[in-house]
Design brief:
- The protein has eight helices and six strands.
- By secondary structure, it is an alpha/beta fold.
- It has one domain: Rossmann fold (3-Layer(aba) Sandwich).
- Strands 3-2-1-4-5-6 form a six-stranded parallel sheet, sandwiched between helices.
- The radius of gyration is 17 Å and the shape is globular.
Length: about 220
């Protein structure tokens, strides 16, 4: 496990379509293929509310990139899932439970293991308001993730977002438009910039204090 280097850990929800992931990868394809060591991997959640989304995401990317992708099985215990998160430099997620697990500080139950706690968290919101459950280390009114790394919240532009979207589990939309206006280029540049600044040999957990680039501004709904 110590030899594993995780650049991204991606957890998707139903409203984030594989086409969005494909656009994300296309923006940084060369960087992902050339700038990361051969042992670096991208972890994908298998999907709970959206069964099979991990495999759909794998099939949406170029063949040359698929060797870096690993799907995390649903049956993985929660503590092992959190440990994998700790290996990731960046955790990308929607408004889901794993968002809060990634943002939480990790401690060893036995006290014999020291977690990195250096995972940057990027949360992507569609219909719901990020300030209700997102983390951001730069925006006022947000709580930062409890990691020694930046956190960002981004809300996509939705032409039909309204107050009823708060009850998202009871919404029955004919067409899901929560992520219709999505700044793929801006967000990939944000993540790439963070990865470029990482010094894996640094051992000072304070190096991220006050650091970090703001997420791109959300488009007008």
């Amino acid at each position: 496990m110590a030899a594993l280097s995780v650049a991204y850990f991606f957890s998707a929800r139903r409203s984030f379509k594989p086409s969005r992931w494909q656009a994300w990868v296309s923006c940084r394809r060369r960087a992902l293929l050339q700038a990361t060591p051969p042992e670096t991997v991208i972890l994908l959640g298998a999907g709970h509310s959206w069964s099979g989304v991990g495999q759909r995401l794998v099939e949406a990317v170029p063949t040359a990139l698929r060797r870096k992708l690993r799907i995390i099985p649903k049956q993985l215990p929660l503590d092992a899932y959190a440990a994998l998160m700790d290996l990731a430099d960046v955790f990308i997620t929607g408004d889901t439970g794993p968002l809060h697990l990634a943002a939480a500080r990790r401690y060893s139950r036995s006290g014999r293991h020291r977690f990195r706690n250096r995972t940057a968290v990027l949360s992507l919101f569609g219909a719901t308001v990020p300030r209700m459950s997102g983390y951001d280390s730069r925006q006022p009114g947000f709580l930062p993730a409890n990691q020694d790394a930046p956190s960002w919240s981004y809300q996509a532009g939705s032409p039909c977002r309204n107050l009823s979207c708060l009850n998202k589990y009871f919404k029955t939309c004919r067409a899901v438009r929560c992520f219709e206006h999505f700044d793929v280029a801006g967000l990939t540049e944000l993540v790439a910039s963070h990865l470029a600044q990482l010094d894996r040999s640094a051992d000072d957990p304070r190096r991220f204090e006050g650091a970090g680039t703001p997420a791109p501004e959300s488009p007008a709904a």
